[in-house]
């Protein structure tokens, strides 16, 4: 494993982060990654040098299950070896049906959630605490003052921001700056080879202010691994894939990950993988690791140890400047128009 400094923070992380969104998550009555598989994946990640773990209060059924699985695993490990990130914002059902104060970025919810998160993880502090989304209902200063106090109390080392508009991120950085609050140092957007220019302004803010970027769904939910095949030239949403994979049971998959542009990018990833004796997944992840304008640490969401092993192989792949550019160029047709997403 190779390690990198997380943007402007003083923390060193592996070039890949382990995502735990599917830990304890029930879909159609089936738990996607149960406790035993979660612990096997955590073992495999740690064996391969991954020291960065991403979770959220709302991951798992009920919410909090992912954090609990990680906390149980950590009892057999030295917490100081790990950089652990969690999140707050979405309605939390871990206490039953969410009430009016069980979501958002108000002081009451953040204070309650950080306590639950630390308890489930069995840790005194979080390395990174993300706001999972922007909260239009809560005054930004209340949110940032609450998060700043948690940093000063030593419960959080660094603040992070997940998906939001570039102006929102800029406004938050400015508000922290003028109030002398801790700022968002780490970001977590949806970002992969087929989806980049769409958030160009957000990424420009990250590059300008030296914010680390930790892309979520870096393989477009598995689409960019190349295991799905198009079945209709006229319909980009028509595809088939192996039984039991996310594309075959998750409604979000078609909407977020499968597109005309995605197929074109996948063709290029496949071609470059052939040139490098690598796999499309490794090339897609490597392209993120090699981002030129900002520190980029993809959050891989492997479901099996074999998938994780393949993904970790991205660390040993190297793209030429031409190969790096070809992946970006594949998003556009011959006339310079971006393929639809
Ligand atoms: N901030 C946010 O709003 C947000 C949103 C989403 C995710 N996240 C974070 O980002 C992490 C990663 O997201 P993601 O799970 O969508 O990431 P992803 O890496 O794009 O997709 C992961 C899925 O792709 C398939 N896969 C992965 N590696 C593979 C391989 N080598 N070969 C074949 N299939 C492979 C597996 O699904 P199948 O086996 O089912 O095909 C796996 O569950 C999450 O765990 C979470 O921590 C954050």
Mind explaining what this structure looks like?
This protein is of the alpha/beta class. It has a domain at 3-188: NADP-dependent oxidoreductase domain (TIM Barrel, Alpha-Beta Barrel), CATH 3.20.20.100. Helix content is 38%, strand content 14%. The chain is built from twelve helices and 14 strands. It has an eight-stranded parallel beta sheet with strand order 11-10-9-8-7-6-3-14, with helices on one face. Strand 1 and strand 2 form a beta hairpin. Helix 5 (166-179) packs parallel to helix 6 (200-208) and helix 9 (260-276) packs antiparallel against helix 12. It is globular and about 50 Å long. It starts with a strand and ends in a 12-residue tail after the last helix. The model has no long low-confidence stretch (mean pLDDT 95). The structure holds NADP nicotinamide-adenine-dinucleotide phosphate. The site of NADP nicotinamide-adenine-dinucleotide phosphate has 29 residues, from strand 14 and helix 11.
List the helices and strands and how they pair.
Layout: E1 3-5, E2 12-14, E3 17-19, E4 26-27, E5 30-31, H1 35-47, E6 52-54, H2 65-74, E7 83-88, H3 107-121, E8 126-131, H4 140-152, E9 156-162, H5 166-179, E10 184-188, H6 200-208, E11 212-213, E12 229-230, E13 239-240, H7 246-249, H8 251-257, H9 260-276, H10 280-289, E14 299-300, H11 305-312, H12 321-329
Helix pairs in contact: 2-3, 5-6, 9-10, 9-12
The structure holds NADP nicotinamide-adenine-dinucleotide phosphate.
């Amino acid at each position: 494993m190779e390690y990198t400094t997380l943007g402007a923070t003083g923390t060193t992380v592996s070039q890949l982060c382990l995502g735990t969104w599917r830990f304890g998550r029930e879909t159609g009555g089936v738990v996607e990654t149960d406790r035993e598989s979660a612990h096997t994946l955590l073992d495999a990640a740690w064996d391969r040098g991954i020291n960065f773990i991403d979770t959220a209060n709302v991951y798992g059924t009920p919410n909090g299950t992912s954090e609990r699985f990680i906390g149980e695993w950590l009892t057999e490990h030295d917490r100081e070896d790990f950089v652990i990130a969690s999140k707050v914002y979405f309605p939390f059902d871990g206490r039953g049906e969410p009430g009016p104060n069980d979501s958002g970025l108000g002081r009451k919810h953040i204070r309650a959630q950080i306590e639950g998160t630390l308890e489930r993880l069995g840790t005194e502090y979080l390395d990174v605490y993300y706001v999972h989304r922007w909260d239009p209902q809560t005054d930004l200063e209340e949110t940032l003052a609450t998060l700043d106090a948690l940093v000063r109390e030593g419960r959080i080392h660094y603040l992070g921001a997940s998906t939001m508009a570039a102006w929102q991120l800029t406004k938050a950085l400015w508000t922290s700056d003028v109030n002398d609050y801790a700022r968002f140092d780490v970001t977590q957007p949806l970002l992969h080879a087929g989806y980049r220019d769409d958030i160009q302004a957000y990424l420009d803010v990250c590059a300008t202010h030296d914010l680390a970027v930790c892309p979520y769904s870096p393989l477009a939910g598995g689409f960019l691994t190349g295991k799905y095949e198009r079945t209709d030239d006229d319909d980009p949403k028509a595809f088939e894939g192996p039984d039991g994979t996310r594309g075959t049971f998750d409604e979000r998959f078609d909407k977020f990950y499968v597109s005309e542009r995605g197929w074109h990018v996948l063709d290029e990833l496949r071609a470059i993988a052939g040139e490098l004796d690598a796999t499309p997944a490794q090339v897609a992840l490597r392209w993120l690791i090699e981002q030129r304008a900002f520190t980029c640490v993809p959050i891989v969401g492997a479901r099996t140890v074999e998938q994780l092993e393949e993904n970790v192989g991205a660390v040993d792949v190297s793209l030429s400047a031409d190969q790096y550019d070809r992946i970006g160029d594949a998003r556009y047709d011959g006339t310079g128009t971006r393929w639809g997403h």
